[in-house]
Amino acid sequence: MFLKQFFEPESCTYTYLIADEKNHAVIIDPVESELDIYLKMLQDYDLKLLYIFETHIHADHITAAAPLREKTQAKSVVHRNSNVTCADLLITDGCIFQLGKYSIEAIFTPGHTNACMSYYLKEENIVFTGDTLLINGCGRTDFQHGSSKQLYESIHTKIFTLPEQTIVYPAHDYHGKKFSTIKEEKEQNVRLGQGKTEAEFIDIMRNLDLPYPKKIDTALPMNQACGQKK
């Protein structure tokens, strides 16, 4: 399997390009400003992009879904709760996408937003968690129909039940870390690890006192239009 991790520094966003042995590919959480980098990679490696997966509707950057779809004919994929009517595929929990011999399972993991998806490659023990589970953290829950209770449940019943050696690739990291494992997050995550109870987690999230996302008023409308400029 071919796996490339890209990093967009302004929003600290990770994008992932995955390809099989027949050069069929998917991309996860592409950022508009990095479009030319993705297209060059696709061209250089002669990759055929099949799907554009969004882990959720991001509030801190504009998606590259629309221009990627236009240039590659790939299908854009979001959870049906997102209200993104321009997407090609509106999915729910348990949908399976084939990439050659690899199966990509879409796992509904709401809480950061009500439309969050994680994508699990069982054959490689890899999960792409979006903002649901970050390295030593998690996504905030104070906008976009977020719920701390729901996020706790999603992580403990959907993500922490994966094999402990599963590699965790998040949508963001603000400290230069590229990946983690389920075992490490269970043991070390300051918000969720070390057996923290749901009540403890909800209290932590309630007292984060985070600033209003500076790009949300621009990014959300654009991302609900698949990043399509009017």
From TrEMBL:
Residues annotated as domain Metallo-beta-lactamase: 12-172
Organism (species): Acinetobacter pollinis
InterPro entries registered for this protein in UniProt: Metallo-B-lactamas, Mito_Persulfide_Diox, POD-like_MBL-fold, RibonucZ/Hydroxyglut_hydro
Keywords from the named record: Metal-binding
Name of the protein this chain belongs to: MBL fold metallo-hydrolase
One family name in Pfam for this protein: Lactamase_B
PANTHER family xrefs: PERSULFIDE DIOXYGENASE ETHE1 (PTHR43084), PERSULFIDE DIOXYGENASE ETHE1, MITOCHONDRIAL (PTHR43084:SF1)
